[in-house]
Amino acid sequence: MISKIVPDELWTIVEPLLPEPKARARGGRPPISNRAALTGILFVLRSGVPWRMLPQEMGCGSDVACWRRLRDWQRDGVWARVY
């Protein structure tokens, strides 16, 4: 599913523009990959489903993980670089 929403051609362009995910200081689960996060973000934005309804079967991590990555990328100006 990830390759259908974020095809390899798009990923090769976008990947260098995304910052590496940071591990949390307190430990816990490792962060999801940028490609998985981008897939989840694009799925929610394109489909209009609520974040909590992001299908786990997609392999994008949790809804909160994708939402936080979207928030962080917005705050850090990543979308302007991608655009």
Automatic annotation (TrEMBL):
<dbReference type="InterPro" id="IPR025161">
    <property type="entry name" value="IS402-like_dom"/>
</dbReference>
<dbReference type="InterPro" id="IPR052909">
    <property type="entry name" value="Transposase_6_like"/>
</dbReference>
<dbReference type="Pfam" id="PF13340">
    <property type="entry name" value="DUF4096"/>
</dbReference>
<feature type="domain" description="Insertion element IS402-like">
    <location>
        <begin position="7"/>
        <end position="82"/>
    </location>
</feature>
<protein>
    <recommendedName>
        <fullName>Insertion element IS402-like domain-containing protein</fullName>
    </recommendedName>
</protein>
